[in-house]
Amino acid sequence: MFPDRARAVAYLALAEARATPPCPDTPEARAAWREQLRETHRHYLTGPQIVAVGTDALDAIRRAVASGAHPGDEHQDAAILDTVVHGCASRFVRTPYGLVWIDLGA
Hints:
By secondary structure, this protein is an alpha+beta fold. Helix content is 53%, strand content 16%.
């Protein structure tokens, strides 16, 4: 499996939308509901909270360091992962499109 950031973000937005009430019956209410879904998707796309998407946590760390999204040395990936996990300021969410590293402090 190759991680796909765009699809992982869309998946997270849909998962969050499913936590909201179901799609309403009236056209006006449906339009507002769809706009809420679009806004959630935009939030994930533009927000700084998604650091990287990888096949696993270590791969996400490596991708973040390689892209410059996270400071560090490519040889420190295990130490960075340990810091991220024990810092409790991030979480990893599994999607069908990869493991998403979300920075909760952003």
